[in-house]
Design a protein that fits this description.
The chain folds into 2 domains: 84 residues, no CATH class; 107 residues, Nucleotidyltransferase, domain 5, CATH 3.30.420. The chain is built from 9 helices and 5 strands. Strands 3-2-1-4-5 form a 5-stranded mixed beta sheet, sandwiched between helices. The relative contact order is 0.17.
Length: 233
């Protein structure tokens, strides 16, 4: 095991028999590409490496929260004009809602998986996004009444209100960005558990942000794969 590992990563990997480089490669492939766990098992077998698909899943659930936390310390600042929308994610056969937003340059603001699509869920998303990324000047949403109600409730408590725009065509950029997430989740055929869904989606979002160049400091001169692996340190 490397001596300069992130202490949180080292704690997760303690007593594990799997080589670190193999674990990290499998986890990265799983969140970076439209592959199922069975695909990963077969791909590693072709390389002479025996890795059970359930092992990859368990390691991903353990490692990805640590990697996300490390990434957030190196995430580039985002713009003040946000485009927000949500997509459907199937968990245990039922639709849940992944709230997401990007700025006008297409950089991911933040994301949050919620069980319900209502004012409370939308407000929780905006509060989390503001806490992590600072306050926006403008938020563009679709015609959703719940998203509008959530923003209006937040504005009541603010001295300078956030400007709200309900213009569908301006939200094309976030709808286009959704495709990368949908493309990756499609081979998973739905999630079995809400907690696992939340963790795996966070890993997919982190890898998507890295691919879009949203990692500062460590991202300079490194490939997206190298940037992901650097989060272990």
């Amino acid at each position: 095991m490397k001596q300069n590992l992130n202490p949180a990563v080292a704690k997760v990997l303690k007593r594990l028999r799997d080589p670190l480089d193999v674990i990290l490669m499998c986890v990265r492939w799983y969140v970076a590409y439209p592959l199922s766990l069975r695909h990963l098992e077969q791909m590693m077998a072709e390389r002479g490496i025996e890795v059970d698909h359930s092992t990859v899943h368990r390691r991903a659930i353990k490692l990805l929260p640590v990697m996300e936390k490390a990434f957030r310390r190196h995430k580039r600042p985002v713009g003040k004009s946000w485009r927000m929308d949500e997509i459907y994610i199937k968990v245990k056969g039922r639709w849940k809602y992944l709230y997401r937003a990007v700025d006008k340059a297409g950089n991911t603001i933040d994301f949050l998986l919620r069980a319900h699509r209502d004012k409370a869920a939308a407000r929780r998303y905006f509060e989390k996004s503001i806490a992590q990324n600072g306050e926006p000047e403008t938020v563009t949403i679709d015609k959703s009444g719940t998203n509008l109600a959530a923003l209006e409730a937040i504005n009541v408590e603010r001295e300078t209100p956030i400007k709200i725009r309900q213009t569908k065509y301006l939200n094309n950029i976030v709808e286009q960005d959704h495709r990368a997430i949908k493309r990756r989740t499609r081979p998973m055929l739905g999630f079995k558990d809400f907690r696992c869904a939340r963790i795996l989606l966070s890993g997919i979002e982190v890898m998507h942000m890295i691919a879009k160049g949203q990692m500062k400091d460590r991202g300079i001169g490194l490939t997206p794969a190298e940037q992901f692996y650097s989060l272990e340190e």
